[in-house]
Design brief:
- The chain has 79 residues and is mostly helical.
- The chain has 2 helices and no strands.
- It comes from Cinara cedri.
- This is DUF4371 domain-containing protein.
């Protein structure tokens, strides 16, 4: 394929496929935008998870309760 043939790609069979892909990208968003949206959702989910863990930890600390409920007395094997 020479340099002169590159102009024919725009009117060739690939043009309709390229146009279809471009229209689909317009409808669903570009890949970068989609990845950013997914990343943003993951970050918010992780922030909510960490907030829940922090709230639980603060509650247990204020109440003077153990974080884990295992037995650590002198007869326990889990010391």
């Amino acid at each position: 394929m020479g340099h002169k043939d590159l102009g024919n790609i725009e009117t060739g069979p690939f043009q309709s496929k390229l146009q279809t892909l471009y229209e689909q990208a317009d409808q669903s968003g570009f890949i970068h935008t989609s990845l950013c949206n997914v990343h943003r959702k993951v970050v918010v989910k992780n922030q909510n998870y960490i907030k829940s863990l922090t709230d639980i930890l603060l509650f247990l600390a204020c109440q003077g309760l153990e974080f884990r409920g295992h037995n650590e007395n002198y007869t326990s094997l889990n010391q």
